[in-house]
TrEMBL record:
<keyword id="KW-0472">Membrane</keyword>
<feature type="transmembrane region" description="Helical">
    <location>
        <begin position="122"/>
        <end position="142"/>
    </location>
</feature>
<keyword id="KW-1133">Transmembrane helix</keyword>
<feature type="transmembrane region" description="Helical">
    <location>
        <begin position="222"/>
        <end position="244"/>
    </location>
</feature>
<comment type="similarity">
    <text>Belongs to the polyprenol kinase family.</text>
</comment>
<keyword id="KW-0812">Transmembrane</keyword>
<keyword id="KW-0150">Chloroplast</keyword>
<keyword id="KW-0808">Transferase</keyword>
<feature type="transmembrane region" description="Helical">
    <location>
        <begin position="56"/>
        <end position="80"/>
    </location>
</feature>
<dbReference type="GO" id="GO:0010276">
    <property type="term" value="F:phytol kinase activity"/>
</dbReference>
<keyword id="KW-0934">Plastid</keyword>
<dbReference type="InterPro" id="IPR039606">
    <property type="entry name" value="Phytol/farnesol_kinase"/>
</dbReference>
<keyword id="KW-0809">Transit peptide</keyword>
<protein>
    <recommendedName>
        <fullName>phytol kinase</fullName>
        <ecNumber>2.7.1.182</ecNumber>
    </recommendedName>
</protein>
<keyword id="KW-0418">Kinase</keyword>
<dbReference type="GO" id="GO:0031969">
    <property type="term" value="C:chloroplast membrane"/>
</dbReference>
<feature type="transmembrane region" description="Helical">
    <location>
        <begin position="163"/>
        <end position="182"/>
    </location>
</feature>
Length: 304
């Protein structure tokens, strides 16, 4: 009866409320298969590389570093040989040739560090270069072997035993800095720059133009000390900028300039003291530089 009334009574149809729209009921479900599949790329990305892949990468880095060490060693021998030939032909004086080798050896060796790989063993491959030079100086200084060209190129008086002093100390400092500081420490970079560039130019300029001697050391001159401060400062800033371009050192330049100037002053002061007969400049200058640089730069390898 009511069905008939509803069908024939439009008023009643209009009075009734419209039916509610259909709704979807969302029930949370757990799909372990979908979750595992979606997290698989993340798990693969965070998991360590397989042992075989790590071995291949280590072997590739070792081959890269070995080739870099061989090239640097060849360059070091070529540098000494080239200036030895120049001094033999009287194109460059022997004393000047020796000091140019002194300057370039440390600076060029440092410049080669970014070309080694990023592996933890890279510094040890780089250390092979000064280590072999150290062995070479020891064997020739002890007269186990004879090489007149080597003796003339790196000694003052041409005596083999001189190889066991200044030249040997020089390569020992190179070896120490590459093993202890490496390329991400401003302490090592500044110390080698002062020993190579600063002390080297102090001798070159001081011998030629150092007529006015220091009052407390008649073997050193004002011009030589000033040139050491300036050249050591310039080489240090230049090498710090060089390594910062590769991202090894992050510099606050305004602060770094004053810190480098302080290190240069300390190294220059120590170099000017009358202690060369007791302590060689290739020991006193880098030692003073390391101590001062460690105090002003701190132990942080990245932020200056």
């Amino acid at each position: 009866m009511w069905r008939g009334v509803a069908a024939h009574s439009p008023l009643l149809l209009r009075a009734l409320p419209p039916p509610p729209p259909p709704t979807l009921l969302l029930v949370p479900t757990t799909n372990t298969t979908t979750t595992t599949t979606s997290l698989a790329p993340l798990l693969r990305a965070s998991s360590p590389a397989p042992p075989r892949l790590r071995r291949v990468a280590a072997a590739a880095a070792a081959m890269h570093d070995g080739a870099a060490a061989a090239l640097v060693m060849g360059g070091a021998y070529s540098l000494v040989l080239a200036f030895d030939k120049l001094s033999e032909r009287h194109i460059v004086e022997q004393s000047l040739s020796r000091k140019i080798v002194h300057v370039l050896s440390g600076i060029l060796f440092m410049s080669s560090w970014p070309f080694f790989s990023s592996s933890a063993a890279a510094r040890y491959f780089a250390a092979i270069v000064p280590l072999l030079n150290c062995i070479r100086l020891l064997t020739h200084g002890l007269r186990l072997f004879t090489n007149e060209a080597l003796i003339k190129s790196v000694t003052r008086e041409g005596k083999p035993e001189e190889l066991l002093r200044g030249p040997l100390y020089y390569v020992i400092v190179l070896l120490f800095c590459v093993l202890v500081f490496w390329r991400d420490s401003p302490v090592g970079v500044v110390s080698l720059s002062m020993m190579s560039g600063g002390d080297g130019f102090a001798d070159i300029v001081g011998r030629r133009y150092g007529a006015i001697k220091l009052p407390y050391n008649r073997k050193k001159s004002w011009v030589g000390s000033i040139s050491m401060f300036l050249s050591g400062f310039v080489f240090s800033i230049g090498m710090l900028f060089y390594f910062s371009c590769f991202g090894y050192i992050c510099l606050d330049w305004e602060r770094a300039i004053w810190k480098v100037a302080l290190v240069s002053f300390a190294a220059t002061l120590v170099e000017s003291l009358p202690i060369s007969d007791v302590l060689d400049d290739n020991i006193s200058v880098p030692l003073a530089s390391m101590l001062t640089a460690f105090l002003v730069f701190g132990s942080s390898p990245h932020v200056v």
